[in-house]
Every structure is written in structure tokens, then in C-alpha cells.
Amino acid sequence: MTDTSEITALADTYVAAAWDKDVERFLSIYDNQIFSYDTWESWSIAGIRNWEAMVREWFGSLQKERVRVTIEPERVEMSDGLAFVAAAISYAAIAPDDRELRSMTTRMTWVARKTDAGWRVIHEHGSAPIGFADLKADLRGPQS
Amino acid sequence: MTDTSEITALADTYVAAAWDKDVERFLSIYDNQIFSYDTWESWSIAGIRNWEAMVREWFGSLQKERVRVTIEPERVEMSDGLAFVAAAISYAAIAPDDRELRSMTTRMTWVARKTDAGWRVIHEHGSAPIGFADLKADLRGPQS
User: Fold this and answer.
1) CA-CA distance, B130 to A39, in Å (whole number)?
2) Residues in A touching B42 (Cβ below 8 Å)
């Protein structure tokens, strides 16, 4: 199965919804049972309501800025029922006058499941590599 | 499909091979096309030969210590051709007198593909969550 367009369409929705700060559209690509290892702060986020809270906090923090997301897939693979994407995902903060204020790039893995309503992301893993020399990540595990 | 024993068997092999510092056995669970977002240092590691170099460096750094790995799956899902595991993975350094010298726990995602030879890991994503307050991860992306 080589038609990966249905999976990359999820990325297009993510990008458009982030630009518009549209929480409902953003959440539409995720399964209700989403289980995320997010880049920031917490060990994991489970379930669409907790995921929604993270998204609302993110969009709510942006004020006049917008976020221009760019997703560059490095690997995509599909089977009948599951698919995965490994991608570089960049977030650029754009001022009202179109200046880019700052940006960063992280690594993202998606696992998607085919449902009656189409493909939905059931697992997201975001991260940046950690240097041994300046180790500051939280290595205490899920109890922390 | 709910029999996830073939996938968790990959974890058992990972644990046993790490304890024995057995490079070949460790590599046996990975596909030749493995694409890894590793927890440490580099953006990505692609292909079994580069992955082997990382494993040899890891095992070679251990001297008299052994590594007791514990993998606790938080999500497992399978289809006919692909499977994924999201797990807490702990690494404890064990001295020759059985003392635990140190340990850490990171987050791991595996995506596995069913091949003629059995299930093989085609994607691994390891990380620890990053605190905003002490951000030290590398956010420059794949060019760095």
C-alpha cells in the first residue's frame, strides 16, 4: 500500500488548524483514546479531553502571534489498519506584520488507526535529542 | 487482533541482549531499514549499520557494569502488517556486586513491521520530556 495521501492529509489539517488556532479542527485528526508523549513538561497525556486542554493552553498563549507549522516526513509506512509517520516538525512564531519572531524544530512520530470515520492519530511522540553535556531532561519516569 | 505476545517478545529480546551485551542478538529485533529518533545527541540514526555502531558504543562504554533494562508497555496496538508499542523503559547500571549504581527512565515508541522472518522494529523514538524552565535540548532540527 503506497498511497500515503490520506496520512499526509492529517499533517495538512494539523498545519491549517494551528495557523487558524482552531481547536476543534486540530482535535479532529486525533482519536478519542490519543496517547501522547509530548515534547514538553509531562510524561504523557492520555485521552482527547486532556489533549484538548494542552491545545487550548498552547493556542491561548499565542496572543497576536500565529504559528506557521511545517511538517517534513522522513518516513511513512502504512498497512490496512495502522500507519506511521516520522517527521521533522517546525514551529515558527509569526508577528502580525509577518516577521518571524522565533522558530524551533522537533521530531515527531505519529501512529494512526483506520476508523470508520477515516484515519485518526492514536499516538504522538514529540521530542528533541538531548546532549549528554547539558542534560536537563526529566529522567524520573512516569511517576514524576 | 489482540495477541500482542509476538510484539512483547521483541521487548524480552531487547532486555536479554542488553544484559548480555550481545550486539547481534540486540540487532536481531530491528529491520535493516531501521529509522531511529534516539534519546541522545543526534537527530536521527538510519539503517542497521549506523544503529549497530550506536549499540557497540553503548555496550563498549559499560566496562564491568551491566544494564538491567525494564520495559513497561503503556499502549500496544497491532494490525496485520504493522504494530506499535509505547512504553516506559528504564536502564539501571548494575555493578559486579549487584549494587544498582544509577538508573534512568525514558519514553520509547516502537513501530514494527511483519516480515517473512517475523516482526522487526522499523522505527524507534526515545525521549524524555523537556521542562520549559531548563530547556537544554537541541531544537535546530535535522540539519544540525
Assistant:
1) 6
2) 129
